[in-house]
Amino acid sequence: MKSAVETLNPTRVRLTVEVPFEELKASLDAAYKKINQQVTVKGFRQGKIPARVIDQRFGRGAVLEEAVNDALPKFYTEAINEAELNPLGQPEVDITELKDGELLSFTAEVDIRPTLEIPDYSGIEVTVDSVEVTDEDVEKSLEQLRDRFATTSPVERAAAEGDIVTVDLEAKVDGEVLEDGVAKGVDYTIGSGQLLDGIDEAVTGLEAGGTATFTSELKGGSAEGKEAEVKVDVTAVKSRELPELDDDFAQLASEFDTLEELRADSRKRLERMKKFDQATQAQEKVLDELIKLVEVPMPEKLLEDEVNTRKHNLEHHQLGQMGLDLAKYLEIQGKSAEEFDAELKEQAEKGIKTQFILDEIVNKEKVSVGQEELTEHLMRRAQSSGMSPDQFAQAVVEGGQVPMLVGEVARGKALATVVEAATVKDASGEVISLDDEDEDGETTEVTTEA
């Protein structure tokens, strides 16, 4: 077999391959055997039809076509390996010559991974938010905890903001009650803004047994977007009572005996969260700066496929689970179809560039992935997917996705290497050191998302 490579552009090549006919013998034998199992000829047992009879009855061309289809992947792979190319996606194959008994020639155009030059990235410098936990942050955290332990009790008075009212609703459009416009026994916290516009004003001041009507634009259902006249009947009014912020509450809501111990623990927890956010921000900013440093030729077919995959996943998986279509999603986002497509393309380009650059650094820095690191990453991915680790691991193995997970971990470690070499400062100009545990774990997730 002879092969030659023609570079069409930095990300695409054309292979020209010539195969001596004798190298097709194994595939020709397999073709005759396959046809033998599929056809019957009077006077011959199935599977025992001579080759010359098959040629006479069904044509030598059918046999050659079957043999060539069987052999092409093997010859293509040999040519790719011989040229030491890293193909991306499936090739476009064209048989240019097929002489029975003499020669098979074909061309294959395919996108390839571009060769990148990784410059010195130690000069990257980014600024991130400072880690600062104020007394106000701590008190807000404690208030949220108090809110979780709030109790309710019925009251015989007019409803006010913060109260919980139980209501029956009936929506009419053009004087007709909607089939899906009736709801009974709905609990609603006045002032939460989690139901219909106008309901807060309608129920405020009503006691149990009170009725009011208001006009509101429906946010869902068969008449979504239309103005409706809504009748609301208040069947119960309940007040929410927050526990006192004292030592008794600390013992109720935590493992601590005193409020001061709980307050100190809240501050530590908030500091850890802000350090985690700071590390994530540093990794994202360093990655952005790294991408600016490297010139990455973009394979157009790969980019097109990536854009289509992302759009398909959004439309048929993410939006479907939320009961939305793309048009409604764009309306909610306030974006035109053109703006959405441009944003999707930009995200896809960044994802491809990120993978190419970090894979190059993996090779350059000889990054390896240990079993423990792979297991930890698998556990994180399982958690984010909502599957048990065993279920996720089984799905990964059955789908042949283990190399993909190894690549994700390796790219995460490559980015961690770049972050470690970069200078990261907080808003005050002080150079900071990111916590190793947070950095390694979160770096992998940032890279995976990209």
From TrEMBL:
<comment type="function">
    <text>Involved in protein export. Acts as a chaperone by maintaining the newly synthesized protein in an open conformation. Functions as a peptidyl-prolyl cis-trans isomerase.</text>
</comment>
<comment type="similarity">
    <text>Belongs to the FKBP-type PPIase family. Tig subfamily.</text>
</comment>
<keyword id="KW-0131">Cell cycle</keyword>
<dbReference type="Pfam" id="PF05697">
    <property type="entry name" value="Trigger_N"/>
</dbReference>
<dbReference type="Pfam" id="PF00254">
    <property type="entry name" value="FKBP_C"/>
</dbReference>
<keyword id="KW-0143">Chaperone</keyword>
<dbReference type="GO" id="GO:0003755">
    <property type="term" value="F:peptidyl-prolyl cis-trans isomerase activity"/>
</dbReference>
<feature type="domain" description="PPIase FKBP-type">
    <location>
        <begin position="162"/>
        <end position="246"/>
    </location>
</feature>
<feature type="region of interest" description="Disordered">
    <location>
        <begin position="430"/>
        <end position="450"/>
    </location>
</feature>
<dbReference type="InterPro" id="IPR008881">
    <property type="entry name" value="Trigger_fac_ribosome-bd_bac"/>
</dbReference>
<protein>
    <recommendedName>
        <fullName>Trigger factor</fullName>
        <ecNumber>5.2.1.8</ecNumber>
    </recommendedName>
</protein>
<dbReference type="InterPro" id="IPR008880">
    <property type="entry name" value="Trigger_fac_C"/>
</dbReference>
<feature type="compositionally biased region" description="Acidic residues">
    <location>
        <begin position="433"/>
        <end position="443"/>
    </location>
</feature>
<dbReference type="InterPro" id="IPR046357">
    <property type="entry name" value="PPIase_dom_sf"/>
</dbReference>
<dbReference type="InterPro" id="IPR027304">
    <property type="entry name" value="Trigger_fact/SurA_dom_sf"/>
</dbReference>
<dbReference type="InterPro" id="IPR005215">
    <property type="entry name" value="Trig_fac"/>
</dbReference>
<keyword id="KW-0697">Rotamase</keyword>
<keyword id="KW-0963">Cytoplasm</keyword>
<dbReference type="InterPro" id="IPR036611">
    <property type="entry name" value="Trigger_fac_ribosome-bd_sf"/>
</dbReference>
<keyword id="KW-0132">Cell division</keyword>
<dbReference type="InterPro" id="IPR037041">
    <property type="entry name" value="Trigger_fac_C_sf"/>
</dbReference>
<keyword id="KW-0413">Isomerase</keyword>
<dbReference type="Pfam" id="PF05698">
    <property type="entry name" value="Trigger_C"/>
</dbReference>
<dbReference type="InterPro" id="IPR001179">
    <property type="entry name" value="PPIase_FKBP_dom"/>
</dbReference>
